[in-house]
Amino acid sequence: MDLQKRPTQEPPLPSAELRASDADRDRITDLLRDALAEGRLTAEEHSERVEGVLAAKTVGELDVFVRDLPAGQARKAAPAYVPPVSSVPNRPTPGAIPIDPDDRLMAVFSASMRKGRWRAGRRIHAYAIFGSVEIDLSEALFEHRQVMIKAISIFGSVEIRVPENVSLRGSGGGILGSFEVDAVDSGETDAPVVYVDGLAVLGSIEAKPKRGKVITDLLGRVTDHVARKVDDHLRKHLDR
Predict the structure, then answer these.
(1) Which of 76, 107, 113, 172 is a Cys-bridge partner for 198, taking CB atoms 3.0 to 4.6 Å apart?
(2) What is the pTM (predicted TM-score) of this model?
(3) CA atoms 53, 55, 57, 60: torsion sign
(4) Position 1 confidence tier, pLDDT thresholds 50, 70, 90
């Protein structure tokens, strides 16, 4: 007979009751900043919510501040964390990527950056020689299913950020340098795939998802915005 008392195991805490980290607070703060820029929050509301985020102790308390925002609903759906039905190939489909780059970024003893709303081509070349290159695809318009980024870093750095619901693959290495690509499988079957192929010589190449950023119908929103501007212009012309 075992007379020793065995400690009872307590059930794990719900995710909402887990202690919030600094990264969790930064992610919510980024969402609030985007909501302010989009006009969803006033400056006063934004300030009040940021103060609440900094004082929050748990993940559940943080979720309250974005519950009424579209970004908060996207985080609840969490499509990026759904296991994919089929694995994404580690290399692009033969013939899908052109030989010549659609876009080229070069930094020699300088810095080069591409961010915001821009159209991502099928092939992008990035060269950082004693400099830094930043490629931010978190708000880019993806017109192609597969995107290849060829990165070369010599005594420099190349940083690549993608939306959370995009698949990410990497192939490369470093010579007295670092090549780091956080492989991601999107839960969306039609999501774009970003391939990073690079070499870091006494430098660094890093590619990973950007927290809180997901692909939405940006092309549709841009089209609607242009259409509204045209309608406003015609309306003003007819009212004259």
Answers:
(1) 172
(2) 0.55
(3) negative
(4) very low
| 108-117 LR contacts (CB < 8 Å, sep 24+) | 115/139, 117/141, 117/218, 117/222
Report, in this order, helix, strand and coil percent for the chain, each rounded to 5.
30, 30, 40
* Amino acid (one-letter) located at 153: S
Residue ranges with strand state E in the chain: 103-108, 111-114, 119-120, 123-129, 132-136, 141-142, 146-154, 157-162, 167-175, 178-181, 193-201, 204-209
For residues 109 and 157, is the Cβ–Cβ distance under 8 A?
A: no
How confident is the model at residue 73, as a pLDDT? 66
Query: Which strand (E) or helix (H) includes residue 26?
Result: helix 22-37
pLDDT score recorded for residue 155: 97
Contact 71, 212 (CB under 8 A): yes
Q: pLDDT grade, residue 10 (50/70/90)?
A: low
**CA atoms within 13 A of residue 115's CA, in its CB half-sphere:** 10
Q: Which of 130, 155, 141, 137 has the alpha carbon at shortest distance from 195?
A: 137
Q: Tell me the C-alpha distance between 69 and 181, whole Å.
A: 30
pLDDT in tens, 57-108: 888 888 888 888 887 665 554 444 444 444 677 888 888 898 899 999 999 9
